[in-house]
Amino acid sequence: MKPEADSNDITEHPHDDKSRPYFCTVCDKQYRTKHDLSRHTNTHTGKYKCTECGTCCQGSVALRQHSRIHSGEKPFECNVCSKRFTAAGHLANHSRIHTGEKPHKCHVCDKAFSRTWSLNSHIRVHTGEKPYKCPMCDKAFSQSASLNEHMKLHTGEKPYICYVCDKAFSDAKHLNRHIRVHTVEKSYNCNVCDKTFSESGHLSCHLKVHAGEKSFKCNACDKAFSNPGYLSKHLRIHAGEKPYKCNVCDRAFSKSGDLKKHVRVHTGEKPFKCRVCDEAFSRTDHLNRHMRVHMGEKPHKCDVCDKAFSQSADLNRHTRVHTGEKPYKCHVCNKAFTDSGNLSSHMRVHTGEKPHKCHVCDKAFSQSGDLSKHMRVHTGEKPYKCHVCGKAFSLSLHLNDHMRVHTGENRHKCHVCDKVFNRSGDLNRHMRVHTGEKLAFSQCVTRRLVVLDI
C-alpha cells in the first residue's frame, strides 16, 4: 500500500539528474520545479478527484478536461479539418500535423518530433531503456503501446475484424493493411518481375530481394535479412521465444504462420489443390514442390556431378553420396545412414515393426518399398523390361541379373575354387558344395522359381 501523501511534503534530493532535483515521496518521480511537483502530488492526495470514475487529476483545469471524456464535450475544433478535441493542448498537438511543425528535437541524433511523448519514447532508442515489462514472459519494451500489443500474443485477443471477410487481427495497423486487399488497387509495380503491391514500403522491401540487399543483420549468428520484420521473427529462434501456442496439443511456435500450418495437422484441412491432378496439400510450399513433378522442373543441381533435383532436400541427401557423410546413427548397432528416413526404416529391424500390410494376403513388411514389390506378385506387373530380348521382370535386380546373360559378365566369384556366377544367389548355393550344408525344401522351391524367371 502506498503511503498517504501530504500536499506540503515537497523534498529536494541529490541525484544524478541535476535538471530534475524535486522528488515525489510516494512514487519517486522527478520534477524540475516545486510547482510541477506540487501539481503531481495532487494525483496522490485526491484533491481533484473525478466523481464519475475516481481518477485523480493534477489541478482544477485538468479535472475539467478529464470530465469531458464522460460528457462527450469537445469544444476545441481544428480550423483545417474540423476534427474536435476535449483539450486545447490536444488541438495544438494535432495542428502540427497540418503545419509540419516539429519543435521537440533529440539532442543525440537531431531527429525532431511534434509531441514531447514521441521524443521521450525515441530517447529510449539511444538509452536502451525498456521500462515496460511483460508479466508473463519478462520480455521488456521501450513503449507501453508495444507492451499492450505484445500481451495479445499471450491472450490470443484479436479485436480488429475485417468488415469484408471477418478475418481478425491483434493490431489495428495489420487490419488497415489487410483492408487494402479488398479496397485498394495495387498500384506499385515491380519493374523486375511485375509483382504488384498496395504499399510503396512493401515494394521497397521486395526490390531488395532482386538486389540481393540484406541490410538487417542478426547480431547472434550474422544471418542477414532484407526486411526488419523477418529479422524480428528470426531473433525469436535465439531467444527461444515461442508465443504462438496450439490449443489442441500445446505445441508452441515462434511465428503465427507456423502455428496456422500446424493446426491443419489436427483439422486435416488441405486448402492448396494441384490444378493438374487435384492432389491437395496443407501448405503452399508442399504444393509448389509437387508442381515440379508435372513441370519436370529440377532447379536444385549438384555441383559435383550435375545431377538435378526438384527439391532442395533431395539435393542435400544426394550430396552425401559425394561427401560420404552419414549423420543419422542407429543407437542400437551404430550403423549410420545418409538419410533420416533410412534410419527410421532400419530401426524396424530392431523393433520388429512391420506397419506396411498387404491387403490381399495380409503379409506385412517393414518398408513401403518392399510392400510395393510384393504387390507385383498379386498383380503380375513386370515393369522392368530387357531392351535386348524384351523379357520383363517384377524387380530391377532380376533384370540386372538377366542382363549378364547377354553381356557374359560373371562378377560373383567363389573364393575357394574361383568358379564365377552371374548371380549372388547362385554363388551362395554353390558355397554349400564346399560347406556341406543341405538345401531346405523351401529353398529348393525358391531356386526353381528363380531359374524359371530367367
Structure description:
By secondary structure, the protein is of the alpha+beta class. Among the domains are: 11-108, Classic Zinc Finger (Double Stranded RNA Binding Domain); 384-453, Classic Zinc Finger (Double Stranded RNA Binding Domain, 2-Layer Sandwich). 43% of the residues lie in helices and 14% in strands. It has a three-stranded antiparallel beta sheet. Strands 4-5 form a two-stranded antiparallel sheet. A hairpin with a 6-residue loop joins strand 30 (412-413) and strand 31. The longest helix is centred in the last third of the chain and has 13 residues, at 441-453. The protein is elongated and about 115 Å long.
Features:
single chain; 454 residues; alpha+beta; Double Stranded RNA Binding Domain; two-stranded antiparallel sheet; elongated; disordered C terminus
Layout of strands and helices, then pairs:
Elements: E1 11-12, E2 22-23, E3 30-31, H1 34-45, E4 48-49, E5 56-57, H2 60-71, E6 76-77, E7 84-85, H3 88-99, E8 104-105, E9 112-113, H4 116-127, E10 132-133, E11 140-141, H5 144-155, E12 160-161, E13 168-169, H6 172-183, E14 188-189, E15 196-197, H7 200-211, E16 216-217, E17 224-225, H8 228-239, E18 244-245, E19 252-253, H9 256-267, E20 272-273, E21 280-281, H10 284-295, E22 300-301, E23 308-309, H11 312-323, E24 328-329, E25 336-337, H12 340-351, E26 356-357, E27 364-365, H13 368-379, E28 384-385, E29 392-393, H14 396-407, E30 412-413, E31 420-421, H15 424-435, H16 441-453
Antiparallel strand pairs: 1-2, 2-3, 4-5, 6-7, 8-9, 10-11, 12-13, 14-15, 16-17, 18-19, 20-21, 22-23, 24-25, 26-27, 28-29, 30-31
